[in-house]
Amino acid sequence: MAHELLQADLAVRLFEREHGQPPASLAELVPVYLDTVPVDRYSNQPLRYHVAGGQFTLYSVGRDHRDNGGRFANLKTYLTEDSYDFDIDTVVRQ
Questions:
Q1: Number of domain units in the chain
Q2: Which domain holds residue 37?
Q3: What is the DSSP string of 12-77?
Q4: Considering the domain boundaries, does residue 76 fall inside one?
Q5: From CA 16, how far away is CA 37, in angstroms rounded?
Q6: Which of 28, 60, 62, 82 has the CB geometry, 3.0–4.6 Å to 23, for a possible disulfide?
Q7: Is residue 61 in a domain?
Q8: What is the pLDDT of residues 39-63, one digit of tens each?
Q9: Is the overall model pTM greater than 0.90, yes or no?
Q10: Which bin fits 53, alpha (ψ -120 to 50), beta or left (φ > 0)?
């Protein structure tokens, strides 16, 4: 899961650098930045992606298989409690 998130995150950031704003959807990254839209292994759907105020949020629904609306925690909390999504910062968040 972290591989797909990292790949998508880097593609979004490259697009943003080249276009001055993040893409409206992950589909905009295909085929120039990604071969396909990355699939969340927990939902078998595309990774969750939202843009608001010029900032993007990218995440997996995580191990509880539910979209918790982009609710994030640190790795210890994520692994011991339900109701959290998984993003690229989960492993380094305090």
A1: 1
A2: 2-80
A3: HHHHHHHHSS--SSGGGGTTTT-SSPPEETTTTEEPEEEEETTEEEEEB-TTTTS--SS----HHH
A4: yes
A5: 17
A6: 28
A7: yes
A8: 999 999 999 999 999 999 999 999 9
A9: yes
A10: left
Strand pairing category for 39-40 and 45-46: antiparallel
Is residue 41 in some structural domain? yes
| Unique residue bearing structure tokens 């995580």 | 62
**Do 84 and 61 touch, CB atoms closer than 8 A?**
no
Q: Which two tokens stand for residue 84?
A: 């959290």
In a domain, 38, yes or no: yes
Q: Give yes or no for a contact between 57 and 50, defined as CB atoms under 8 angstroms apart.
A: yes
Q: Is 40 exposed, middle or buried (0-12, 13-18, 19+ CB in 10 A)?
A: buried
Q: How far is CA 86 from CA 16, 71, 80, 83, in A?
A: 22, 8, 13, 10
Residue with tokens 């979004």: 12
Structure token digits, residue 60 = 């997996």
Checking if the pLDDT of 14 tops 70, the result is: yes
Instruction: Output the average pLDDT for the chain.
Output: 96
Q: Which residue has the tokens 């997996």?
A: 60
